[in-house]
Amino acid sequence: GAGVSQSPSNKVTEKGKDVELRCDPISGHTALYWYRQRLGQGLEFLIYFQGNSAPDKSGLPSDRFSAERTGESVSTLTIQRTQQEDSAVYLCASSPFWQSSYNEQFFGPGTRLTVL
Amino acid sequence: KNEVEQSPQNLTAQEGEFITINCSYSVGISALHWLQQHPGGGIVSLFMLSSGKKKHGRLIATINIQEKHSSLHITASHPRDSAVYICAVREGSNYKLTFGKGTLLTVNP
After folding, report:
1. Over the Cα atoms of chain A, what is R_g?
2. Nearest Cα to Cα of residue B77 among B33, B12, B29
3. Which of B25, B43, B90 has the most A C-beta neighbours within 10 Å, making it the best mutation to test the interface with A?
4. Which bin fits A5, alpha (ψ -120 to 50), beta or left (φ > 0)?
5. Of A48, A107, A110, the CB nearest to B45
6. Cα first-last separation, chain B
7. How much is the average pLDDT of B64-70?
8. pLDDT surpassing 60 at residue A99
9. CA–CA dist B17, A24 (Å, integer)
10. Residue B40: exposed, middle, or buried by beta-carbon count in 10 A (0-12, 13-18, 19+)?
11. Higher-confidence residue: A115 or A106?
12. Interchain proximity A41–B101, CB inside 8 Å
C-alpha cells in the first residue's frame, strides 16, 4: 500500500513569505507527527495529532508555526513570515494509534525548505 | 529529558566489514527505534525493540535495558548500506521520540 507522502519535496522561498507543507499519512493511521531536521542536527519533535486534535503543540518553535489536520487524513504545516533559521527538512510520520508504547512510526520522504 | 548519544558520529568501512553503531540513553524507556536515512532521502524504520534482539537480513539490533544501551550491527556491509543511522527512544506511553544525532556510515567498495 501507499506510504506517507509529503509535498512539495523541495521548497525555496524568500524571507518573510508564508509556506504550507502537506502530509498525507497512511490510510487508517490515527496518529500523525511533524518533525524538523536542521542541517547537522538531530530530528526535533514539532507537533502531534491524534485524529484531528493536537494535544501537544509544545514543539512548535514559535507562533509563526501552525498545523492543522482534516479528520484522520491530510495535515498541513504552515510557517508564516519565514526566517532563514526555518530552513530545514520537515518530516511527517504516521502510526496506527498512539496508545501503545510499542507503536511504530512510518516516515514520509520530507520537504526540504530553503529560506533565502 | 532523555539524552540520546550515538557513537561513532562518522564511520567509514570497506565492503564486507562488520559494522557496529552504538546508542546510549539516560532515562528508562519503553521502546527504542533504529532508523535509516539515505542522502536526500526519507527515513525508513529499521527496527523497533524493547528487549533482547531482532534480526532482519544482514541487520541485527540488540538492546540492554539495564545498561540503557543498544547496538545496531551490519554484517557483510555493502556500499548501499551507506546512510545515516538514527537511534530514537520513547519513554513509557509517551508518543514523543527523542532522537540521537545520527551516525554517518560510508561503505567503500
Report:
1. 13
2. B12
3. B43
4. beta
5. A107
6. 40
7. 94
8. no
9. 39
10. exposed
11. A115
12. yes
In tens, the pLDDT along A2-59 reads: 799 999 999 999 999 999 999 999 998 888 999 999 988 889 999 988 888 877 788 8
| Most distant CA pair in chain B, distance | 43
Here the cell at position B70 is 543498544
A106 contacts on B by Cβ (under 8 Å): 45
State whether B100 and A98 contact (CB < 8 Å).
no
Provide the chain A residues 45-64 that lie in CB contact (below 8 A) with chain B.
45, 48, 56
A6's grid cell: 509529503
Task: For cell 539516560, name the residue.
Answer: B26
Sign for the CA dihedral angle at A57, A63, A65, A67 comes to positive
Phi-psi region of A109 (alpha: psi -120 to 50; beta: other; left: phi over 0): alpha
CA–CA separation, B39 and B75 (whole Å): 21
Question: Is the minimum CB–CB distance between A104 and chain B shorter than 8 Å?
Answer: yes
pLDDT per residue as tens digits for the range A43-88: 999 998 888 887 778 889 999 999 999 877 999 999 999 999 999 9
Chain B hits for A105, Cβ within 8 Å: 33, 45, 97
